[in-house]
Design brief:
Oligomer: heterodimer
Number of domains of chain B: 1
Order of helices and strands of chain A: EEEHEEHEHHHEHEHEEHH
Shape of chain A: globular
Helix content of chain B: over 70%
Distance between the termini of chain B: 59 Å
Mean pLDDT of chain B: 89
Distance between the termini of chain A: 49 Å
Largest interface: A-B, 38 and 31 residues
Mean pLDDT of chain A: 93
Radius of gyration of chain A: 18 Å
Bound molecules: adenosine-5'-diphosphate, magnesium ion
Helix content of chain A: 25-40%
Largest sheet of chain B: none
Number of helices of chain A: 9
CATH architecture of chain B: Orthogonal Bundle
Structural class of chain A: alpha/beta
Strand content of chain A: 15-25%
Low-confidence stretches of chain B: 240-254
Order of helices and strands of chain B: HHHHHHHH
CATH class of chain B: Mainly Alpha
Chain lengths: 255, 254
Amino acid sequence: MEQQVNTQPDAPILELSHLGKKFGDNVVLRDISFTVRAGEVISVIGSSGSGKSTMLRCINLLETPTLGNIYYRGQDIQTGNIPLTAYRAKVGMVFQQFNLFGNMNVLANCVRPQQIVLGRTREDATDRAMEYLEKVGMAAYINARPAQLSGGQKQRVAIARTLAMNPDVILFDEPTSALDPEMVGGVLDVMRDLAESGMTMIVVTHEMAFARDVSNRVIFMDGGVIAEEGTPTEVFQNPREARTREFLSRFLGNN
Amino acid sequence: MNLFEWMGKIISQYWLQFLKGTGNTLLMAIIGTLVGFLIGLAIAMVRTIPVRETDSGFRRAVMRAVNWILSAYVEVVRGTPMMVQALIIHYSLFVVVGMPSLLSAIIIISFNTGAYMAEIVRGGIISIDRGQFEGAHAIGMSHAQTMVHVILPQAIRNIMPSIGNEFVVNIKDSSVLSVIAVTELMFVSKQAGGAYAKFVPAYIICAIVYFILTFTVTRILRYLEKKMDGSSSYTICGSQSDPGAEIHIKREEA
Ligand SMILES: Nc1ncnc2c1ncn2[C@@H]1O[C@H](COP(=O)(O)OP(=O)(O)O)[C@@H](O)[C@H]1O
Ligand SMILES: [Mg+2]
């Protein structure tokens, strides 16, 4: 008994239109517009405080945009026509801090949300959870509690938990930024596999190699606006904007 | 007769009343703590419902009024002695409708505990990191589902010591309800002491019984807490062929 979201099949999965966000008088996002089509992998780069997290959080309505619209398959998500919880199940989110449920073991973290939100049976949910836990290499740890895992392991479980909801698109907010360096590779490998399997993804990241090699499109944010947008080749090799060049030289110079 | 002889005499004459008093004390403490916990849980859940800027004006007004009433309840109950509450409420309301004093006492102790529990549970809820709320919301859980399935199990585990503490406090503080003539331990002791005009031996018996109750309860609660924490290791799946090869990983410091 899966919750159905009314959709227009040929519409882009997501469309942001002149999105703006203020916290009090502090304008954090201005005039953000872009479109996400099925299978696209979009990397969002930019210095700390440029509004990347706020943008992702607006997309799944953890923050309420103060201006503009977000369309999911052609439907405005803020009109209430799409139930918020059904929409969020379709737009997965992976956080820097993993946000696993501390009272559940690895398997339950992946099974219970499917039962609670999608009304799947335990058997069905368990089969799907195991499939994705195997995919991220965490099937051996189903009995462990989050507090017993390393950061990289937690993040891989969080990805499996999101995948088990069968989302249309996954938002990643700096998924490797809280990890010890030796853990980063494993998580990036999982994300690379996902991208290759055709998953639609928006990835906020400081991993420039990932952004360059895996994504179809790169968005560079600065001061709450999209300062530059293009293919990885365009943005990394021929940046048009001075501030993009400055950001990249600061970033790539260090690596 | 010396002190011990008096104590012996009082016990031999009044043991049945002491037994009944102990029963009523425990009854009030157990029901008061349980009902008080449920009241506190309900209040804390209501008070932690997020109010968003985008909610309708009506919804926000209702939420504000409800929150005001709930905090008034918490403040008034916590800011006045339970003995005074008992005297006012029992003699102005419950006597009028013919409520037996034991029932009055249970209601009063429950509402009293509820006010303290509301703050305890709220503390437990806000001690769970915001990330877990967001993780649950982002996956499509409603606020209520997030509370029931994710937050409360952890919050309640974390506040177990405080809940146990409230129970122990209730065992002792229910003694003030002797003012409305509930036949609990304190009331029985006063009667027994009065019968011989020997209050000190009667109250020493009383104190010993209270101490046995609280000491036992404290031990039991500590044992239950340990059990609730469960195993501190887990088994890597796929190593069953050789039990000696099981890898046990110690719980990280939380
Ligand atoms: N809840 C909030 N309240 C007020 N200001 C916020 C809040 N969240 C983020 N901000 C501000 O918005 C700006 C953008 O933050 P963020 O989106 O986290 O940037 P990034 O993810 O690119 O580092 C920062 O200046 C930050 O201080
Ligand atoms: Mg951020």
